[in-house]
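Replying to the earlier thread about multi-chain prediction with a worked example.

Input:
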Amino acid sequence: MSRLNTGGLIDRARPLKFTFDGKQYSGFEGDTLAAALLANDVRLVARSFKYHRPRGILTAGTEEPNALVTLREGARAEPNSKATAVPLYDGLVASSQNRWPSLGFDLLALNQLASPIFVAGFYYKTFMRPAALWEKLYEPLIRRAAGLGALSGLPDPDSYDRKHAFCDLLVIGAGPAGLAAALTAGRSGLRVIVADDDMAMGGHLLKERSEIAGATGADWAAGVVEELASYPNVTLLPRTGVFGVYDGHEYGAVERVADHLPEPLPGQPRQRLWKIVAKHALLASGAIERPLIFPGNDRPGVMMASAVSAYLNRFAVAPGKKAVIFTSCDTGWQTALDLQAAGIGVAAVVDTRAQKPALADRLDLSDSVVALQGAIVDIKGSKSVKGATIRDGSGKETTVACDLVAMSGGWNPAIGLGSNFGNRPVWSEELNAFLLDKTPPDFSSIGSAAGRMSLTSALGDGIRAATEVVQQMGKSPAEMAIADVAETGGTNENMLWVPSGIEGKAFVDFQNDVTASDIKLAASEGFVSIEHLKRYTTMGMATDQGKLSQINGHGLLAEETKKTIAEAGTIMSRPPYTPIALGVVAGHHRGEHFRPVRHTASHDWAAENGAAFVDVGQWKRAQWFVQPGETEWRTSVDREVNATRGGVGICDVSTLGKIDVLGPDAATLLDRLYANMFSTLPVGRARYGLMLREDGFVMDDGTATRFAEDKYYVTTTTANAARVMQHIDFARQVIWPELDVQATSVTEQWATYSIAGPQSRAVLQALLPDIDLANEAFKFMAAGEYRWRGTKIRLFRVSFSGELAYEISIGANRGRQLLEAIMAAGAPFGIVPYGTEALGVMRIEKGHPAGNEMNGQTTAGDLGMGRMLSTKKDFVGRAMAQRPGLTDPGRMSLVGLKPLDHAATLRAGAHLLAKGAEPKAANVQGRVTSAAFSPTLGHSIALALVTGGQERIGEEMMLNDIVRGSDVPVEICDAVFVDPAGERLRG
Amino acid sequence: MRIPCPYCGDRDSQEFVYRGDAAPVRPSDPAEETEFFDYVYLRENPAGPIDELWYHAQGCRNWITLTRDTRDHAISAARLTSEGKSA
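Result:
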């Protein structure tokens, strides 16, 4: 065990059991998985992406590239979890990934022997030919050999929540700068949200031995958090990572509600997506320590210096027993102090600089090698560090035994979120790091994220920035003072050290296995732009998005190309800042909740009466009604069609779009919206109408009914209801705002039933004995407003089926009641309910175009309705419908098709060819848009668009269905198959 | 993204339907075919501020003319389209 006896922010009274690769270990409450593994002396935790190199734990935060494990088992298994960011819980199960057969003995590590060919761009160079082998051989092999963890393939058993929040100030990161800012703003009465990725707030204060106002940094942070929690205007979100900045002051964040528990508590989501609208945001995301490039810098036991300090100070874990420090700044020396304070020997301190810092005086270096202007040139050991070969300023090499190497190459402000808007960060010569230049609006970085690295300056920066925000918002800022601070870490002379003359594998990008020699090779091959280099070598393209690697790659590229880093430039970051689960983005929108479902007023009645439902947009519509003994859907549909044409049927058509158009200019508006005339429509009459788009193609059809001079009622197809409403609003608000007319959707207010068939009048008359429905009194296309049992109804004599038919509408709350009353009144006449399938069969029999024909590419002429286009008025689409291309007589237009062999089946989508023509695209003369079996005629029928259209009636053609492999000889006929004279609907 | 609806206030852009450039004015018929062609198909594509039409489909159902900078999505003005071309 490597657990220290004292110290740390762990609760030794609460031991937790966990397993890694099937072996049992124990840790404490407050540990991360990485801390607990180190406490149990588990060093080797992963295999690398390409070379399957043994890898350990490099960092103590979300920037971790190496220690990726699969967390949990079964359906909850989550691959590529960063052990350094996983809070330990009792019963945690984790396993290593990308190894076979085991982590300790990984056969695929043989890849390392072949590493000379696995250089940058090797996929591009190696697997070019033969092309046929790519899919069959190369890709499967590469996928098996290289990779991360695998998904379980099982449905996710957990739920995900979504929350919207609004605040004056969003503080991203709860380190010293963030907490100081939040405290200032919170005390000043601003609505504040503080989001921090970690399970505990405090940032580096939890990892360092600094002091504020006489207390440890961690205690100070805990006190601030306690005060903030007491303010109603402050929301604290621990375990919440802000992953993106979006337009309009919006921020995306994921709260890991239950990831620190074995499974979510009852009624709790696993994670919650926050959409935060913040008037101002302060990026207090701190800084990320830079690795150093040297051979073997990826071996388990080589760690970031600040991570070593974090494991010592926060988790009371000694990551090794004998350490070598390799640093280019004071941080490494501070870690040496932390190690000695914990009783761990420091075998050597290697500094790339020429001078020891002042901090060194506080170290006992009597038994240590100190190499200035030095470097580590080799690491001994494979699955764990056994020693380091040090070259000092004079070139002399010494090998020192050790099991831990702590490296520090300085610090990079964590500015990723700030470049989400495409603002390229700029190089600061003063700080030797990239800083934000232009930020998203009302967004600023503070503390070490802004390059203010010392604790004192970070605290001061947080107070200053928050005070400014408070003032901007017109409030008076609370008086704040910076307490006495005992700094750690010394002065940060943040130089970027780039080695020269490296032999062996020195890693730049740990997660994607990109080495220093890959960068040099890419540069020598001409990939000298930072964006090209990134894509050619894949540096920075792993799930850590180059948080550690990018800067060293830049340094090497600058060196190779003899440019400065400022000239070489840097990349920008896009969301998400850290990977997020797709499940949390989907939230509740999955399975049956994928989108809202709309039920008509008689949905339950339909369900009780054997309806099979079909999705039409968001609506559930009855497709057919299964009667006892019916096993084939066709049996049900044929019965419904026959019963309707032979007697009477009823269909729920409530889903049609319904719009009331009211006002003195209602008639004028409708004249301009429809291709045909509506101002001439008498009160108490309905008329079929066709709407075009402004480009001259058909948009939608329906009826409009005039109930009064200034009161029209418009119906649309189910699919286009929202679009037509939008179109009407566009016409009356944008094109002709001078018209005095209002329009409102009443689709959901009315339940509407179509009663069709020769007996429909008798049924309705029984239902409405007080209304004279005789043919002369209530003619075809008559309409009126009446009452049924005291409730207003609208009655229309319109027909889609071609039969004598009526539509009756009532307030949706009484829809089911009306339907049941009609069924009762119709029982003596054998009334049947019918669904959308029978509706479709009857409309194809009547040759009515529907969505399949009004597909956005057809004109009124194509659909046989060219004569409806009024020449007496302006209307939307009139001018463009006259274009030669839209009036060309050679266009495909609507006809009917019947098979020569009545037993044959016609199918939608099949192509029409001249008899004997080769089935190829150039010979296609038309296609089937709708097809059905007509129980009325006893054979298959279809509607088709064919070149020449009506002219070709009587011609025989071949219907070729290349997808389903059939050839059916057909005859072109009129599109109206049943009652072409229209006698039934007028009778 | 947030849209400042003049009727409803600041709202999530998901409530709106985007149409595009507000500049084209429908020619009053009768007009040359070319005028209608320009109205239907031709659009400027500026890098900078542009007046454009948004429909508050899941709100007040008003058409709104927004002045938005295509370079950074900054919205500098919003008005009800029915109230005229410009304030």
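Chain B has one domain: 2-83.

Feel free to reuse this layout for your own posts.
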